[in-house]
Model the fold of this input.
Amino acid sequence: MGYPRVVSTFDDLIAANERVEPRDEMPDAYRATLVRQIAQHAHSEIIGMQPEGNWLTRAPSLRRKAILLAKVQDEAGHGLYLYAAAETLGVSRDELLDALHAGKQKYSSIFNYPTLTWADIGAIGWLVDGAAIVNQVPLCRCSYGPYARAMVRVCKEESFHQRQGFELLHTLSHGTEAQHAMAQDAVDRWWWPSLMMFGPPDDASTHTGQSMAWGIKRFSNDTLRQRFVDMTVPQAEALGLTLPDPELRWNEERSSWDFGEIDFTELFEVVKGNGPCNAQRLAHRVRAHEEGAWVREAASAYAEKRAAREVA
Ligand code: FAQ
Done:
């Protein structure tokens, strides 16, 4: 930071709402919580390339293909910023990837659903990136410096992604009857899983209390979920699409939208590995990693050669 800090112990930094930096002392549990959350977040970004990657070769125009390619590349970049942020906590990228591949670390439930039609690409941009923004904007103020700074850039790119999803769905929704139906079907399938991205309800969330006390999370899962619903309902109207919840109602008293009950057993099943695509996503990820071994070896050999040349 550009100014000298007047407080230095971990508790002082948290109480003063200052950033904790990699060389600061921090409790083991704080470090472990951050590694868990940042690793899960990084894994989500790279596993999240698969559902959309599925449509790269079948995008309906060159313009749409170029946009989708750029978006999928952005997700890879987000993964890299996040692995780099996790590495400042003393874990290596190899360790984190091994944990993902062995099923010991999680990634977001949302990426275990299939992308059945082109409209799913719009629904992911609009709903999944929309939910990601609501969840991640407060993380730009997370107490851990490297995570917070990574989030600033990620959020800028996510907001671009969300708008491309909205624009894609808007085009379909105002196209032919079949295109409108395809857009509606995608929204019907992605709405509830998007609400589940925010995690279990507050009374079943294991980490929220401690994470909020440490300034890692700034809002609870339910607060952010409600914020997402409030933001999305008017957008659905602008799109000319219906959200698949007959209980959605404006609540004057709360100045918020009431919504129907979420089937959290589905979230817990998907998180346990029983979603529609869990096995496929992980197997693909492991295969891609193994097939990329030669690239990592070549990059290391090149780096060694350059370092030796510099010494000489
Ligand atoms: N999926 O006590 P809590 C993206 C787990 S956006 C899987 O409430 P916490 C962009 C949780 O880990 C998606 N697991 O946990 C993109 C914990 O398990 P553990 C990624 C879930 O951490 C768009 C247990 O349940 N975003 O990638 C989920 O306080 C398009 C108890 O839950 C982030 O990761 C779930 N949905 O709150 C990319 C954001 N929910 O570890 C490509 C950062 C909960 O004890 C294409 N993460 N669990 O075994 C967070 O904000 C938090 O970690 C929450 C969960 C809010 C996700």
Q: What stands out?
A: Strands lie at 249-251, 256-258. The mean pLDDT is 96. The radius of gyration is 21 Å.
